[in-house]
Amino acid sequence: MSTTPLALQVENATVRYGLVPAVTDVSLVLAKGQITTIIGANGAGKSTLLNAITGVLNLEGKASLFGQPLDKYPVEERVGKGLVLIPERRELFSSMTVEENLLLGGYTQRGRSASTIEGIYADFPRLKERRKQGAGTLSGGERQMLAMGRALMSHPKVLLLDEPSLGLAPLIVREILNIVVRLKEAGVSILLVEQNARAALKIADTAYVMENGRFILEGTGAEVSANPRIEAIYMGGH
Ligand SMILES: Nc1ncnc2c1ncn2[C@@H]1O[C@H](COP(=O)(O)OP(=O)(O)OP(=O)(O)O)[C@@H](O)[C@H]1O
């Protein structure tokens, strides 16, 4: 039995679209203040699992947040409990400015937004420079920073990050993942879903490899990246 307190635990979870399972019998742990990653190819079921943890999709099995069963909380209450998803498509309001997008992320905070926003600008100076710019005109990396900044406005304790590196150049990927590490150092527990196995495994404490809706391998980030099969399938040629 591990003595590390768990931020998030999923036990024997299955998620279906209609009758068809997209995730089958997966179990994972995310320890407090750590990074757990799920790597896997397109269509493996990674986003489906994240959406089931947020409650948008039905999760058959057990999931708990800081030891409390998640099904106690309806979807709309989970953000208030500190569980926040940054979706793969980043889902910003393109016609609004950077700052307006950030303010929307802080709607649960009542009056704390002004101080929070200054903190976010300190972490993301590039967003501060562009605070009056329309979100629709940002570069891919800046859009990801804004999606992260907006999520941070609600003071997450557990951040679910769906492919933050998607579509970004290697240098920007490194910058984004450095921010993920800084969030961890600030005490946020992070579940990171990635196709970019090499980058994710480098920063992960714990890692799971997903294929066809199931976890086929798990271990520390270092163990999984040293596995010859993973090296060949997920990291060859990069
Ligand atoms: N709304 C849906 N209805 C039916 N099937 C779906 C739906 N969304 C996803 N699926 C299927 O579920 C499986 C898992 O998809 P999912 O998006 O979770 O994979 P993923 O690992 O996140 O991949 P990607 O990196 O491409 O997002 C795929 O076979 C996909 O076609």
Properties at a glance:
single chain; 238 residues; alpha/beta; Rossmann fold; 2 domains; 4-stranded antiparallel beta sheet; globular; binds adenosine-5'-triphosphate
Commentary on this structure:
With 238 residues, the chain is α/β, with parallel strands linked by helices. It has 2 domains: 1-82 and 157-171 and 188-238, Rossmann fold (3-Layer(aba) Sandwich); 89-155, no CATH class. The chain is 36% helix and 28% strand. The protein contains 10 helices and 10 strands. It has helices spanning 46-54, 75-78, 98-105, 113-123, 125-129, 140-152, 170-185, 197-203, 221-226, 228-234, and strands at residues 6-17, 20-31, 35-40, 60-65, 68-69, 83-86, 158-162, 189-194, 206-211, 214-220. The strands form 2 sheets. Strands 6-7-8-3-9-10 form a 6-stranded mixed sheet, sandwiched between helices. Helix 3 (98-105) packs parallel to helix 6. The longest helix has 16 residues, at 170-185. It is globular, with a radius of gyration of 17 Å. It binds adenosine-5'-triphosphate (ATP). Residues 17, 22, 40, 42-48, 88, 195 line the site of adenosine-5'-triphosphate.
